[in-house]
Amino acid sequence: MGIISRMAVRLNMSEPLLVSHLNGGARKYKLFFIPKKRGGKRAIAQPSKEIKFLQRVFLSAVHLPTSNFVYSYKQGKNIFQNASLHKGNKYFLKLDFDNFFNSITPRIFWEQWKLAFPEQNYLNAVDKICLEQLLFWQPSAYKSDLVLSVGAP
Fold first, then answer.
1. What pLDDT shows up at residue 122?
2. Each residue of 69-103: pLDDT tens digit?
3. Which residues contact 44 (CB under 8 A, 6 or more apart)?
4. pLDDT-derived band of residue 57, with 50, 70 and 90 as boundaries?
5. Phi and psi at residue 115, in whole multiples of 5°?
6. What span, in angstroms and rounded, lies between the C-alpha atoms of 15 and 21?
7. At what angle are helices 3-11 and 125-135 packed, to 10 degrees?
């Protein structure tokens, strides 16, 4: 059973209806800006309530692996636990990658998917297209480029 089929079952809806909800999902975002600590503004692309809900359903249907050393985005882990691991160190390196989320494209996602799920290397075309519409944002109505957004689950 494909991912979209599994999501449809979880949602108790037909697969064609779910596909219709995902159609154009990459354009269903609200763009706003928040100030950065050191000046400038950070663009936040927030998915519509429907897309955000469907993203959470996806995350509950597919468990994406993370390293044991990752403290962000893990239930029961927090920034204070992470910091306590480093409090006795003489040196501390803090990095902030410029446009990190917006640099992740579907191509990069699918490369990592193949590494994380070697048994699921083959996804049907409908699943791939629907997942790209679900997980990625289209920043420009004039370009078809999709990127991961800051502000989505």
1. 67
2. 777 777 788 888 888 888 889 988 888 788 888 89
3. 31, 32, 33, 34, 149, 150, 151
4. very high
5. -70, -40
6. 10
7. 60
The 3-class SS string of the chain reads CCHHHHHHHHHCCCHHHHHHHHCCHHHCEEEEEEECCCCCEEEEEEECHHHHHHHHHHHHHCCCCCCCCCCCCCCCCCHHHHHHCCCCCCCCCCCCCCCCHHHCCHHHHHHHHHHHCHHHCCCCHHHHHHHHHHHCECCCCCCCCCECCCCCC
The whole-number pLDDT of residue 69 equals 76
Tens digits of per-residue pLDDT, 110-140?
Answer: 998 888 887 766 678 889 999 999 999 998 8
